[in-house]
Structure formats: structure tokens, C-alpha cells
Amino acid sequence: MHILIIDDDKNDRFMVTREMRREFSDVEVEEVGEPEEFEQALAAGRFDLTITDYQLRWTNGLEILRTLKQRFPERPVIMFTNTGTQEIAVEAMKSGLDDYILKSPKHLVRLSTTVRSVLERNETRRRANFYENRLQSLLDQLNVGVFRVIPDGRLLEVNSVFLRVLGLNSLDELQSIGGFSEIFSKAGDITPQQRRERELKLRKPDGSSIWVSVNETLNTNQGESVIDGLVEDITGRKRAEESLKRYATRLRTLQELDRSILRAISPAGIAQAALAFTYPLLPCQLLDVMLFNLETQQATVLAVQSNEGIGCSIGESFSLQDFGDIETLQQNQALIIENLAEHPRLYRLQQRLFDQGIHFIMNVPVIAQGQLIGSLNVGAIQPRSLTDEDTDNAYEVANQLAIAIQQSRMREELHRYTEQLEELVSNRTQQLEEANSALEAFAYSISHDLQEPLRAMRGFATILLEEYDTALNSVGQDLLYRIASSVDRMDNLLVDLLAYSRLSRVDLPLQPINLNLLVRQVLTQLEPSLEEKQAQVTVAEPLLEVVGNYRTVEQIVTNLLTNSIKFVPAGVQPQVHVWSERRDASGALRERSVRLWVEDNGIGIQSQHYERIFGVFERLHSIEAYPGTGIGLAIVRKGIERMGGQVGMESEVGRGSRFWIELPEFIK
Ligand code: ADP
What pLDDT shows up at residue 464? Predict the structure, then answer.
């Protein structure tokens, strides 16, 4: 430690020096008795503390004090004097004197204690200053404004960042605008130990707005309550949060838009859905979609969303020349007029909107497959209403609209084609049905009308045979027999044809059928043929019950049984087996069904003919080998189809065939 002792009395200096040396082991003392020595000491500036007398020959202690404090404000000065008055002491203290001791042997002892405490105090002050400076620079670096107010609202101090954050040049400016009172809490807003945290939106003197967070605590400073606060500019964070929020809303809206577009059917429905979702997103009072017809040069309003009364109404049409600069839109560029009031020339529609109070206009092109099909139009009362983000949003919606409208148009077109096609098909079907029934009617009348002359021929041939047989030789008689048998064959053909055409003409009411009874009845009818062929027929009774038309099923079973005993090689005893089985619902039959099988041991059928034999007049053999008309199986198929059933077969050449018919089961 280095002490400067200023006293022009040599003895006094000695006394003080001795006292200091006695008290402090590492002390270095520099004695000043003359003005030159003072100058040197000042210039060297090596001392930590000064002890000075008041009354000096060449000056006084106050001057010394002021000189020292001016050069070294931090270094303590103690006045040790016996000439001073109370006034001088007060004056000196005001100039920064650290202590004042009366010069007397009694007080000399106190000098060292005073030096010590002054040094300590100084050190404490130095540290406090250091920390305060450090805190201050930290706060400045963190860009945190600091203030201190008395709970009655009076501002005690603020730092420079505080002013900067609020856009103020000085504290005076803050006071003069009398603003920002919302920042400072008052007594009662806040209690000791409690922190008060708030986020506030403020308007700066230049008109721009900022977000700040304010953190306050209630403290006591020298027995007085003060509120210490920190103010931080959080505008950036708030903006980021807001833009994130807006982004999320936008995303949600676009998703909703997608969904509603998917649900909507017509272009108008799609556009209306799009506008309903977009309207809350944009700071506007009018949103509409117009479709353009470049051929007729017309624009038509497809959908509108607006504050009451503003804009056009749905369905309204006007010339593209009244709308705006179409060429710019065709180049996929939006038209933006920030303020209609400042615009030199307005198109008729723009003028109309301006008259309704609209100042801002944006037309975003709706382009599908490179073609301008319309525009999404935004109108706002405030000039310069839309941010870049809003414009992006509008573009996005317009693009989505373009796709959706295009799709919906295609859907509509497809729908129209389908309808046309269906109409065409139904017309053709009707024509075909008419032709078919005409043909069937013709076949019916032919077979019916032919029967009569045929019966006459049969009658005359019989008379000829019975009454004039002697007039004919054997050749003539043979020819007559042939005529008669041809007539029989023709008669059979006509009967079968009639039965066949009858099947498609009459109603076939359905009823439960007991197949046991039906099969027995058919077998009884067929008894002469069965006996003639010595056929053996077994029926696996009980057969299941079905739903069908009795007469038709009877006819079908007759035909199948007739075939099964007919198509058997000569010399082989026909063996026929009939049984039924239950089938699960499948194919054309939605309920449970029953298959009735008729199996024979006949000649069999080659698989390539399975389909063919069900056609009219289709036969695989000559009349001589196996007589028949070729209509039996055609009747089977037609009948079964008309009853909603199915028919099929399996066969092995040389071993036999199995025919089946399938009808809904009758469930009691
Ligand atoms: P048709 O019996 O009057 O000749 P169908 O329409 O009943 O006429 O039968 C058509 C053809 O199918 C028959 O000519 C015959 O060649 C073949 N066919 C029918 N049923 C059998 C069967 N059970 N076994 C072998 N062939 C058969």
C-alpha cells in the first residue's frame, strides 16, 4: 500500500508516517511538504490513499482534495487537521472527502482505523461499481432495457437500451410524450417477493409497433420501495410466432379446401367452398371467382364471398373489356392495384368496386393446362392491404381452384358421355327387344298357321291310305307313307317351336314345386317310351323342393329324361339316375339353391359341343340315327333362364352324360 502524506509541518508528517508504519506492515509512505513535491506525486500517481492537512502554507486542504479527486476520483482522501471548521468539513465531504479527523495525539490513534475503513469502503465501492458496470454492459449486450420507478409511478432511472427499445432519444422525450405508462406497474400491482411478467404491444413515437416483455420486481432501496424492471424487445419472436400461427392456419385451410373440393361436385360448388375457407385468411372485404370465355369475351361470376353489398352477384356476366388487363393474366401474372384512388384509369368493373368503397384490388389468374380459365379476385377497403404472404396464399388457392375446376369439368363431361352412352345402349336394347319379340311373334304365328294345312295334309294322306290303298302299287304306297311321316315330323317341329316361342311370350308365375311329385308325373307320361326302351330309371327320393314355374319345370324335366333314354347306343339298356343336391348361394342365385341332376349311360357328348347343343335346331346326329327336332335343350335353357335359374352339363364320350338344372330352394 502506498500512502501520500501532505503536510507542511515536518513533525506532523513524521508522526503520521510513524503511525502508519506501525499499523501497516507493507506500507510505503510518500511525504509531501512543498508544492513541487505535490506536483511530482501527482505526476507519478503511485499512491493509493492520501492523508492531507487543511492549513498549508501554499494552499489549503480543499484545493488539494479537489485536485486529487479531479485526477483520481476513486482514490480516497482523508483530512487530518486541527484548523478546520465544521463548515469546511461539510464542504470537503461534498467534494468527495472520504473522512475527516481532528489532528491531536488522541486522534492520531484513530487515524489508522480510519485509513483501514476508508480503504475497505473504497474497495467495496469499487467492487460495487465494477459489478454494476458489468451488469450494465451485460444488459446492454443482451439488449435489455432497465428501469426503476417508485410505486407512485415516478420514474427514477432508465438505461440507454430502454430508450432505444422504445425508439426514444432521451428520458425527456419519454416524459414529454407522457407515454408508455402501461409499462410501469403501480403500488398494489405487485407485492414483495413477487415477479410481474407481461407481454405488451406498444406503438413507438414513429408509429411502428413493437412487442415487449416487461419483468418487474418490488424491491426496497434505502428503506424506500422501488420497482425494478426489465424491458425486452420480443417483436422478432412474436412475429415468428404469429407467422407460424398463420402458416398453420393456412395449412389447415388448404387441407380443408382440398377436402371440400373433393366433396363438391360442380365448379360453382368448388369455388364457393374455396372462397369460404380463404376469406378469413385474407385481410379483404371481397373475394370472388370469375370464369372467362375467351371466345365470347365474357366473364361470369362463379362464386362470391364478401361483406354485404360489395362486389358482383353470382351468375352476373360482363364483357372482358370491362374487367381488366386480361393479357397480363394470360401471362400467369396477377394484377394488383394498391390504391384505386391513385390509379389513372379504371376499367368499368374496377370503377364500380371503387364506388363501393374498395381501394385495393388483386386479380390472380386461374390457369388450367396452360389456359386462362378465370380469375380469383380480391378486394379490400384499405389501400395496400395484402402482404406478400397474403399474395402467396391467393396464388395457392387460385392454383388449387384451377385443378379442381378442371377436374370437375372433366367429371361433368364424363358424366354427360356416360349418360349419352347409356341412352344409346338402352335405345339399342329396346330396338333389339322389339326386333326379337317381332321375330318370336312371327315364329309363333308361322308355326301356329302352318299347323292347319299340315293337319289337312295328314288327314288327306290317311284317307288316301285307308280308302285308296288298292289303287296304288307298293311304290306309291311307300311314297304315301313317307309323306305321312314327314308330316308327322313337321308337326313335331311345329309343336316344339310353338312351345319354345311360347316360353318367351307368357308370364311364368313362380311357386314352390315338390320335385318328387313332378318327376313321378313325368315318368308316368313317359312310361310307353321307357317300356319300349326297357329303360331303368332310379330317383333318389326325397328330392329337395324348389321355386319355379310348374309347367316349365315339367317340360324341362321331360326333355332331359327323353334325351337320356334316347341317346343310348343300340342294344344298351338305358340307365338313368335322378337326384338333387343343395348348393350355397353363388353366382346368379342369391339364395340357397337346389341342383337337380339327370344322369344317363348314353353315348356322351364331346366337350366342344357343350354350348352348341343348347341352341335352337342344333343337333349332333342324323334323324335316322336319333330322331328329334333340335329344340329340346333350347327350351330347357330358355325356360330355366326365365325362372332365374341356371343349367349345365358334364359328359364323357361313350360313358354317358349328366345334365343339371339349378333353381332357388323352397324354404318352408
Ligand atoms: P333333340 O333331342 O331333339 O335332337 P335337343 O335340343 O334335345 O334336340 O338336343 C340337341 C342335341 O344334343 C341332340 O341332338 C344330341 O346330339 C345332343 N344331346 C342331347 N341330350 C343328350 C344326351 N343325354 N346324350 C347325348 N347327347 C345328347
Answer: 87
